[in-house]
Amino acid sequence: MSFPQSWPAPNRAAVFVLSEMSPARRITLLAAVPLLVLSSSGLTAELMFDRTSALKYALTVGAAMIAIAAALAPQPLLVFVALLVVAAPVATFEVDLVGVRVSAVVALLMLTAVPVFLGLGKRVGPTALGRAGCFAAVLIAVPIAAGPDISEALYVPAVIAVVAFYCARASVLPGGTSVVLISSLISLMTQAALAVWEYATGQQINLYGGAEARAAGYFFDFQTQPRPTGTFFDPISLGTVLAPVLPLGVAAVLLLVHHRRRLAAMATASAVILVGCGLSLTLSRMPSIGALVGIATVLVLVPRRLRWPAVAQTGAVLGVLVAMAVSVGGPSLLLRATSVTDPTANGVVTADGDRDRVGFWHVALEAGFDHPLAGVGVGHLNQLLVARAPDANVYTHAHSTYLQIFAECGVLGLAAIAIIGAGFLRDLARVWRRSPVLAAGLAGAATAVSVAALTDVVVIRYVAVAAALAPLLGLVAGLASRQSADG
């Protein structure tokens, strides 16, 4: 393309860039630039929201900047997926958008759908995990239909499936795996930093109005120590999403050291230590145990030639982590740790709550055995708990993901879990052939989540937890698809 000689060089460059763009990118860029100007002035926030705030102003400016980045990026899908993964912990944040109440996760899923429907990027080939998900959906259809609220029962599984699909689409693109991993690390590092801040200041995060004084009931205090939650509903939710970071981070450090990228390895190790401190401050026992079991899984699965270096590096990272966690958490952390061996013993501070939990397990088991095929229906277990367990209330659940599913979905639900697990392992085996250290990290992360799910239901109950963990499934499916395509 030729330009008049009188045109300044920047003008010629801008016209050339626009001329080389696809029509969709050109329209997006030409619309986003004036939108950024309007948003920066505050006019967009005033037009879109009933009440403005600093956060809503930042959202409007950020949206315009993201649109510009997507128009200029070689792979626009990666921009949207990165945003989705980073924002997953605030999935339940809602705003009044032109009089309509919209949650963050719905808005982000709709935004990410745009490049997918425009055909930007690559398709994900057939995967064992994808097929397993379809079979599992068929199996749990009857228990969900038997529940009191079908839409509510479908919400969390649907979010898991869609987020995993988008992350799988991203993983098959050049650099997509790194984008998903780094975005997830940034997101969960932020949550860990918030946990440390909440513990240090005694304040909690309120997305609608900044920080506010800590409420003891909300934080589930242990003795005099507040249990931080980040932007999640409770400390167990925060602990559950932080747990898989440790085994995956250990694998990443090993991989970076092996490739002599020492600076990146040190940065990743620092991130692991920060996340580990955040996890320890939640005082969530099973997520902490899950993280340790996940790390052990990594050390077992890494190639033999790397095992001893991996043990040494992991030992060094864990040594620093434990020292920092104990110095920050103090006696409460040590006392909480000692309750792991016998949580219902006399003298244990939380013994009464753990005895209640055992009672809830028994009720859930009875419900599953009384209705072995399809359970009592998704959403009906609480009624049985209130009727049969003395300390149960309308918010009580089985305190175990597996028992909750067995009670409400019966053998069909357990079969669905088994099928998804088998599909995950089959795809993971394909990833291991090409990237054994990464596969070991992903296996360790999945192990951490599986162990954490033994004593709570946050994975299937809260959409923010589900959205934060779903990228793990998407990474495995996407990497397996890419390995198959590469032969």
TrEMBL record:
<feature type="transmembrane region" description="Helical">
    <location>
        <begin position="263"/>
        <end position="281"/>
    </location>
</feature>
<feature type="transmembrane region" description="Helical">
    <location>
        <begin position="128"/>
        <end position="147"/>
    </location>
</feature>
<dbReference type="GO" id="GO:0016020">
    <property type="term" value="C:membrane"/>
</dbReference>
<keyword id="KW-0812">Transmembrane</keyword>
<feature type="transmembrane region" description="Helical">
    <location>
        <begin position="402"/>
        <end position="425"/>
    </location>
</feature>
<feature type="transmembrane region" description="Helical">
    <location>
        <begin position="54"/>
        <end position="72"/>
    </location>
</feature>
<feature type="transmembrane region" description="Helical">
    <location>
        <begin position="99"/>
        <end position="121"/>
    </location>
</feature>
<feature type="transmembrane region" description="Helical">
    <location>
        <begin position="460"/>
        <end position="480"/>
    </location>
</feature>
<feature type="transmembrane region" description="Helical">
    <location>
        <begin position="153"/>
        <end position="172"/>
    </location>
</feature>
<dbReference type="Pfam" id="PF04932">
    <property type="entry name" value="Wzy_C"/>
</dbReference>
<dbReference type="InterPro" id="IPR007016">
    <property type="entry name" value="O-antigen_ligase-rel_domated"/>
</dbReference>
<keyword id="KW-0472">Membrane</keyword>
<feature type="transmembrane region" description="Helical">
    <location>
        <begin position="437"/>
        <end position="454"/>
    </location>
</feature>
<protein>
    <recommendedName>
        <fullName>O-antigen ligase-related domain-containing protein</fullName>
    </recommendedName>
</protein>
<feature type="transmembrane region" description="Helical">
    <location>
        <begin position="287"/>
        <end position="303"/>
    </location>
</feature>
<feature type="domain" description="O-antigen ligase-related">
    <location>
        <begin position="271"/>
        <end position="417"/>
    </location>
</feature>
<keyword id="KW-1133">Transmembrane helix</keyword>
<dbReference type="InterPro" id="IPR051533">
    <property type="entry name" value="WaaL-like"/>
</dbReference>
<feature type="transmembrane region" description="Helical">
    <location>
        <begin position="236"/>
        <end position="256"/>
    </location>
</feature>
<feature type="transmembrane region" description="Helical">
    <location>
        <begin position="179"/>
        <end position="197"/>
    </location>
</feature>
<feature type="transmembrane region" description="Helical">
    <location>
        <begin position="315"/>
        <end position="334"/>
    </location>
</feature>
